[in-house]
Structure formats: C-alpha cells, structure tokens
Amino acid sequence: MLLEGRPHMNSGIFKMKNNRTGMTKFVDHQFVKGTLSQGFKYYAALTDPFACAIFMMFMISDVHPFNDGNGRIARVMMNAELVRADQSSTIVPMVFREDYIFVLRKLTCHKGPLAYINVMTKLHQFSDNLYGTDFTELKNHLADCNAYEEPSQEKLQIIDRSIH
Known about the structure:
Elements (H helix, E strand, L loop, with lengths): L19 E2 L2 E2 L6 H14 L3 H15 L6 H15 L12 H12 L5 H15 L6 H10 L20
Antiparallel strand pairs: 1-2
C-alpha cells in the first residue's frame, strides 16, 4: 500500500541491477540478500528498542535493496520497532531533511555513528512532542517548529510540550 503510488518503479522489489544516489554506490545487487541476512544477525543482538530502530533504518537505507522506496521502507521498519516498544514514531520534517540525509551519507562512508545517533535522537525527541486535540492544533505546532520550512531558510525548533 505504501509503495503502490509508483507501480512503474517496481517499488519494494529487490533490485536486479546496482543503484546509486549521486556519488554513493549501494550494496551490489548480487549481495543484497546476504548483506541483509548478516545485518539481521547484528540487529538480533541489540536489546535497546531505539538502537534496534535506528539500526534497522540505517541498514535498509545503506543496503538500498529495492528498485524504489528504500527510504520509505527504512522509516517504516524503524517506526515498527519503536511502536513495538510502545515509543513514539519518528518523522523527518522538511526543515531537517538535509541534516538527516547528511548523517546517513556520513555513516555510509564509515565516518562514525555518533552524528547519526545524535540526529536520530533529536528527531525522536521532536516527534515525541507531536500531539494535539485536533489536526489544526498539530499543524500549527509543526509550523511553530518550522517543520514545513526549507532547510536553507530555518532551523528545526523543538518545543517541549510535556503533558503535566
């Protein structure tokens, strides 16, 4: 259902040829199943739900196993882990998209996981504050946080809305 909007792209189907984004080359199509199989062994050793979630998201994003829909599937897998642990789902607002993509690329180039962990923690904290009595209230809160803005124009503002 998530991928049916682009049927001509064979979304969600394992790739049959190599893919890349810009200068980033992803796992060779011949090694996708083996790489995922090994990745799931590392995943199985994790115990913290947030660690499971961001590992899963990065693994799918980094392997890029599908012809199309890799980012969407990666975020769905991450959020499935969070929901399973009764935690808030995580969204990536437009204003923070470049930071999110930057740390994914940085980790792909083996530059260390700390920046990725920090960004994903910030996004999770931001998302944990998303609630409201109706859609208008939530939409206004997102606007106050600059969520709809272009990254070149604004920065993401996390407004603590803890329920007391």
